[in-house]
Specification:
The protein is an alpha+beta fold and 429 residues long. Among the domains are: 2-84, Rossmann fold (3-Layer(aba) Sandwich), CATH 3.40.50; 112-179, Dna Ligase, domain 1 (2-Layer Sandwich), CATH 3.30.1490.20; 318-421, Phosphoribosylglycinamide synthetase, C-terminal domain (Glycinamide Ribonucleotide Synthetase, Chain A, domain 4). 28% of the residues lie in helices and 27% in strands. The chain contains 13 helices and 23 strands. It has helices spanning 10-19, 64-68, 71-77, 87-94, 96-105, 119-128, 152-163, 232-252, 285-289, 297-306, 343-346, 384-395, 411-418; strands at residues 2-7, 24-29, 36-37, 43-46, 58-61, 82-83, 113-116, 133-137, 146-149, 175-179, 184-193, 197-199, 204-205, 208-210, 214-217, 222-225, 258-268, 271-278, 319-326, 352-356, 359-361, 367-369, 373-381. A 6-stranded mixed β-sheet has the order 3-4-2-1-5-6, sandwiched between helices. Strands 13-16-19-23-20 form a 5-stranded antiparallel β-sheet. Strands 7-10-8-9 form a 4-stranded antiparallel β-sheet, sandwiched between helices. Helix 6 (119-128) runs antiparallel to helix 7 (152-163). The chain is globular, with a radius of gyration of 21 Å. It starts with a strand and ends in an 11-residue tail after the last helix. Bound molecules: adenosine monophosphate and glycine. The site of adenosine monophosphate has 15 residues, from strand 8, strand 9 and strand 18.
């Protein structure tokens, strides 16, 4: 089969490598790191042609924006098999107010919230919450539209700058105000065929820019899987309480959701709470989740796209760690155009793939930085400790002026695993 992947980031690079174990892959628009031949002999190519123009047995749409814009609807109308929701389902991510409304309707456990386009009302609601306070743009903001703060003054100022349009334009003219929840975060991605869901292995993402979860929120600075603290029982609980009721609520609204449902969870003392739903694979979660799916991924995604999900993907016993290398100035104003050294050498470390995101070739054929998140160094190994060491060993081979990365990806998980919290196969309940 020929599979078309839409997107150009690290997530799409990881998808290309995983799908090219059993299909020829063409990525639009792709990036300079992707083209080549897979280890299994299937090809990966990139093209500027639009997905609508490509001949493919399955189209997998990576990013949220084209989903929100209705690309899946257009492709389905043209008779294509597509993994990714239509614009109706993608509204879950396109509007946080809509998402919270559906979660409330489906009785999915989530933070207390209110939706506002008026600053006076938003401030009054902030006053009812104990703090910390959370202010979110309703619309898409590339993972950067969320403020979590212990300062009421900061929360009030953020409401003003979002609602005025100053901070995020139209995306911020409605805000969701929430109670801040405490706990550890986890991402659970599930495949959905419109009716049935199967979970993919859990992952943990690192959203803050700097070590120790300091600094601003980003799209994600690294990830690992398995998550020692998240075992099969917790996954089942999340499916029962959060994913299946959501799919049922979508069906009641006439939405046939075929794609990835990504639950961003906070594991609180009172149990798991949904912070958000995304309508696609996480980035960088996909980078660590996909290599842990033992089944033929092309086949499983095609089943979900066709509304006939039969395979329950088995998590493999390997572990995976991904360290994101970002440009100086990310996430606000990344500096681009720097020449990147050492990618080939990094790829020689056993089990390592260097996944491209914001890269380009300059006029002389040099690989240069072209975005905020530039590369993801992913290692797959028998256990988290080895995967983590290899990811950082490979990271040490790569360099450009201003390269920024976290040193603590999966550090705590390796300690937990070492203390017997779990094995790589899924963890304690
Ligand atoms: P979201 O885009 O809604 O996932 O928010 C981005 C990040 O903000 C999450 O990964 C959390 O780290 C944080 N966050 C969002 N909502 C809350 C909340 N209610 N309580 C605490 N932290 C939150
Ligand atoms: N890693 C966070 C996201 O993909 O939204």
């Amino acid at each position: 089969m020929r599979v078309c992947i839409v997107g150009s980031g690290g997530r799409e690079h990881a998808l290309a490598l995983a799908l090219a174990k059993s299909a020829d892959v063409v990525v639009t628009p792709g990036n300079p790191g992707m083209a080549g031949t897979s280890r299994e002999g299937f090809t990966i190519s990139v093209t500027d042609a639009a997905a609508e123009e490509l001949d493919a047995g399955l189209v997998v749409i990576g990013p949220e924006q084209p989903l929100v814009d209705g690309l899946a609807d257009r492709l389905r109308a043209a008779g294509r098999l597509v993994l990714g929701p239509g614009a109706d389902g993608a509204r879950l991510e396109g509007s946080k107010a809509f998402m919270k409304q559906v979660l409330a309707e489906a009785k999915v456990p989530t933070a207390r919230f209110g939706v506002f386009d008026d600053a006076v009302e938003a401030r009054a609601f902030l006053g009812e919450l104990p703090g910390p306070w959370v202010v979110k743009t309703d619309g898409l903001a590339a993972g950067k539209g969320v403020l979590v703060t212990d300062s009421m003054a900061e929360a009030e100022a953020d409401v003003e700058s979002k609602l005025s349009g100053a901070a995020f334009g139209e995306a911020g003219r409605t805000v969701v105000v929430e109670e801040g929840l405490a706990g550890t975060e986890c991402s659970l991605l599930a495949l959905c065929d419109g009716r049935n869901v199967v979970p993919l292995p859990p992952a943990r993402d690192f959203k803050r820019l700097a070590d120790g979860d300091e600094g601003p929120n980003t799209g994600g600075m690294g990830a690992y899987s398995p998550v020692p603290a998240v075992g099969d029982r917790l996954v089942d609980q999340v499916l029962d309480q959060a994913v299946e009721p959501l799919v049922a609520a979508l069906r009641r609204r006439g939405i046939d959701y075929r794609g990835v449902l990504y639950a961003g969870l906070m594991l609180t003392a009172d149990g798991p709470r949904v912070l958000e739903y995304n309508v696609r694979f996480g980035d960088p979660e996909a980078q660590v989740v996909l290599p842990r799916v033992d089944d033929d991924l092309t086949g499983v995604l095609a089943e979900a796209a066709a509304g006939r999900l039969r395979t329950d993907p088995r998590p493999s016993t390997v572990a995976s760690v991904c360290v994101v290398l970002a440009s100086k100035g990310y996430p606000t104003s990344p500096r681009t155009g720097e020449v990147i050294d050492g990618v080939e050498k990094a790829g020689e470390v056993p089990g390592v793939d260097v996944l491209h995101a914001g890269t380009a070739l300059d006029g002389r054929g040099h690989l240069v930085t072209a975005g905020g998140r530039v590369l993801g160094v992913r290692a797959v190994a028998a256990d988290l400790d080895t995967a983590r060491r290899r990811a950082y060993e490979a990271t040490a081979c790569i360099d450009w002026p201003g390269m920024t990365w976290r040193r603590d990806i999966a550090e705590a998980a390796v300690l937990e695993a070492g203390m017997g919290v779990s094995s790589a196969s899924g963890g304690a309940p």
